[in-house]
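= Protein in question =
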Amino acid sequence: MTAPAPVANEPPANRHALAAAVDDNIVAYWRACAPLMPGGAWYEDGDLTWFETGVSTAPWLNQVLRTRLTPENADERIDEMLAAFDRRGTPMLWSVSPSDNPADLDALLQRGGLVRGGGVLTGMAMLLHELPELPEIDGFRLERVRDDNALARWMNAYVAGFGMTEDQAQPFFDLYRAFGYGDDAPFRHYAGTLEGEAVASSTAFLGAGNASIWHVGTLPAARRRGIGTAMTLAPLRDARDLGLTIGVLGSSEAGYSIYEKLGFQTFGKLVQYRWPA
């Protein structure tokens, strides 16, 4: 349930190392989460990496994360995977990154009945020694979540910032509560308040030798003040202080310009396909 203290590593010398960090951290995140969710199970069989949970309210809680198929077995393996989820009666996402294969995987998934549209994220990474300073925002306070009450404030901002339902968000609340709030936990959550009101959320995951940023959200009324920037930088600065050197994330279109200004580099699209269509 807990992660060992991060070990300092040297900055990578090439873009390939940064690109690999994006994929590796996403897989590590779900490898840590899936087994602790209701009905959760994790699978790696050499050519496919995926997980499932008993949660049917959100397709992202059942995903294929890594695909290493060949032109000879791709159709058969895709059909097998979709049939398995169909039997379970749960929606799912098939995530495709630039490192997945075969080369025509997108077309094969759509031919199998999946629909592009579960989401498109941009994989981004940066070296943490290049982080800028935190912005100064009048009336704004950022705190690291240390107990259940603070996590509840974090959850309220997360739900409102992303326009989620409580049913969709509850599995994450239960999961993060189970991991706890100690310095040995792989997750660190941050809540932002403006004039005492919870308005922003973010989470850092320390895994695969680097730090990833998740759940960066701000209430609509509090946007365009630099709060999203602060909620991204604070977790990464903490990770840097622990000795980590790489920060990664999957950016939506709305957040891309913010992360680019902070120094993140782009390493391709992370495309999600939805099942059932």
